[in-house]
Design goal:
The protein is of the alpha+beta class and 569 residues long. 36% of the residues lie in helices and 23% in strands. Strands 2, 3, 4, 5, 9, 17 and 18 form a seven-stranded mixed sheet that branches. Residues 38-50 and 192-212 have low confidence and may be disordered.
Length: 569
């Protein structure tokens, strides 16, 4: 008797547990995923192999917190044909032509495929057009609901946002940019459009209950759309003026690593990819490309010299115009000597021999240790795919010639983002920070995760960065175009760079091709913005001061006005 009671109790317990699990599943199907299943029902049994495409959104925010959609899902219709049911192809074509543009020959070819039950005629119809066509009630013609990825900004921040495409398993996934980097957040588990309701109801119950939900959500980027647009306009105007092969720029907070804007040219419209013949255009060269950056590296060399106490800003040296090291000759940009001059002139006149002199005084081991601590050979950790490391093996040879050339930005190749990160050290008080593009993740379960990045690793003393900043402010106030771009009420620290471009075919460097770069930050003694610009092989000008000073100053004045930055002097 007791054993029978025990069996009944066990059975009842099992039934109660099953009812509880079933209730959870029903709640998931009807409440949590109800909208998704409704969309599947709309497409039931129309297309043999199909899935409901869903994906998380990417947002930008303006300075005032206004949210702007950068990537979202749009709902509409696909126009399809069942050739077996087409009674009058001419009538069907003429009726459809009132609403959509379809090539007549292609339509007729598809209409003649009498052994086929499914032919796609047009995708991405808006709701109004789709409903209007559906109301025509043409035999063999139908519209089915579909979702697709839309980028409202078109080409705005296209390299940063990235795009979606088919992966190796024939599923749509992020292929470049944020779309790829945050695939685990933005991606959604595909649901077959033809799954039987009860099969779905009871499928994978144990997985749903015991494994927990996937962490899906939306992301909010640090990109400020108005600033991004201004940067892109400035880059386009600059490239058009100087006919450079490529151009790029970054606007970042040097203290937090938040990136307000980053852009390259050539660019592309994410909504219209069919015209792009070269897939390399989709790569973010600010992260995936490396270049010898030239004289904008000199402030880092100055910082090494001051921090290691082999020089002070008041030190002098004998500028002989050239040096012979390990059988190689290096020289100032004009080949001229300056005699006994102070350290400030290394930055004012951008003197290679002065930078080399500092590096040699520091010594190979310490100089290399400092430069590597600036992250020049590391990944920055930026939230973009395919980031590359800098090519800095020349720092490790122990030879004086490589040490000297690295001191003025030749012989080592860096990505633009790694360069901007390293230069932020002299702006932010000596900290190596992590650049990042996403500031918040909003999960589907209403949990919000703010992306908190560490304040950075100290690599030089705060006093060192302050000394270098003073020197860079003097560059702008007195040396850059002889002080013509100085802003009376704002302190701006900046430096130009002009680097020879390596010849990959014949070795050595081209005699007539240069990379121009420019970086600056402001307000100089408590900076909120660092701007980095570069372009490859501009035509008609020899030096970065000629091609990038105006773009930098235009962006600086824009940011001051847009963010209402108060004067600091």
């Amino acid at each position: 008797m007791n054993s029978n009671v025990s069996r009944v109790r066990i059975l009842l317990a099992f039934l109660f547990l099953w009812a509880f699990i079933l209730s959870l599943k029903l709640y998931s199907v009807q409440i949590v995923n109800g909208e998704n299943y409704a969309k599947q029902a709309d497409k039931q049994y129309v297309k043999p192999i199909s899935s409901v495409f869903e994906r998380g959104s990417i947002f930008f925010e303006t300075k005032n917190g206004t949210r702007i959609s950068a990537a979202l899902i749009r709902e509409g219709y696909s126009l399809i044909m069942n050739p077996k049911l087409i009674k009058n192809p001419d009538f069907a074509y003429e009726a459809l032509s009132q609403y959509v543009k379809i090539d007549r020959d292609i339509f007729m070819q598809k209409a003649l495929k009498l052994n086929d039950q499914y032919e796609e005629l047009k995708k991405h119809l808006d709701e109004k057009t789709g409903i209007s066509i559906g109301e025509l009630d043409i035999p063999g013609i139908n519209v089915i609901k579909e979702n697709w990825r839309v980028y409202p900004g078109g080409s705005l921040a296209s390299h940063t946002i990235g795009l979606v495409g088919y992966d190796k398993t024939d599923k749509i996934a992020g292929r470049y940019g944020l779309e790829r980097y945050y695939e685990n957040i933005l991606g959604r588990t595909e649901k077959s459009a033809n799954i039987n309701f009860f099969a779905e109801l009871f499928a994978n119950i144990s997985g749903d209950i015991f494994k927990g939900p996937r962490k899906e959500g939306n992301i909010v980027a640090t990109i400020e759309p108005v600033v991004q647009d201004e940067l892109e306009k400035t880059l386009k105007k600059t490239q058009d003026m100087w006919n450079s092969d490529s151009i790029g720029g970054i606007i970042m907070n040097p203290k937090t690593g938040e990136i307000y804007a980053m852009a390259n040219r050539p660019t592309f419209d994410i909504n219209n990819l069919n015209d792009e013949k070269d897939p390399h255009v989709f790569s973010n060269q600010l992260v995936e490309g490396v270049h010898e950056m030239g004289s904008i590296i000199k402030p880092l060399t100055m910082a090494v010299g001051i921090d290691s106490k082999v020089i002070t800003p008041e030190s002098t040296y004998d500028d002989t115009g050239f040096l012979l090291l390990n059988g190689k000759r290096i020289a100032n940009w004009d080949g001229k000597d300056r005699g006994i001059i102070p350290m400030q002139e290394i930055l004012n006149q951008s003197l290679n021999i002065g930078a080399a002199n500092i590096a040699l005084k520091v010594g190979s081991d310490d100089f290399t240790r400092y430069f590597l601590s600036f992250g020049l050979g590391e990944l920055t950790g930026i939230d973009q795919p395919n980031e590359v490391r800098g090519k800095v093996n020349n720092l490790k040879t122990g030879r004086e010639i490589e040490q000297a050339t690295a001191s003025y930005g030749q012989g080592i190749a860096l990505s633009p983002i790694a360069t901007a990160r390293a230069l932020s050290i002299v702006a932010n008080g000596g900290l190596l920070i992590q650049p990042h593009i996403v500031k918040r993740i909003e999960y589907a379960d209403d949990v919000i995760e703010d992306i908190n990045i560490d304040s950075g690793i100290r690599v030089i003393q705060k006093e060192t960065s302050e000394e270098v900043t003073k020197m860079l402010v003097e560059v702008v106030d007195k040396a850059l175009r002889k002080g013509a771009v100085k802003m009376t009420h704002y302190s701006i620290a900046a430096k130009t760079g002009t680097a020879q471009i390596a010849d990959p075919v014949n070795g050595g460097y081209y005699g007539d091709r240069y990379l121009h770069s420019f970086f600056g930050y402001f307000p100089a003694y408590s900076p909120k913005y660092i701007i980095f610009l570069y372009h490859v092989y501009p035509k008609g000008a020899g030096y970065a001061s000629e091609t990038l000073t105006d773009p930098f100053m235009e962006l600086t004045k824009f940011l001051i006005n847009y963010y209402e930055v108060p004067p600091d002097r």
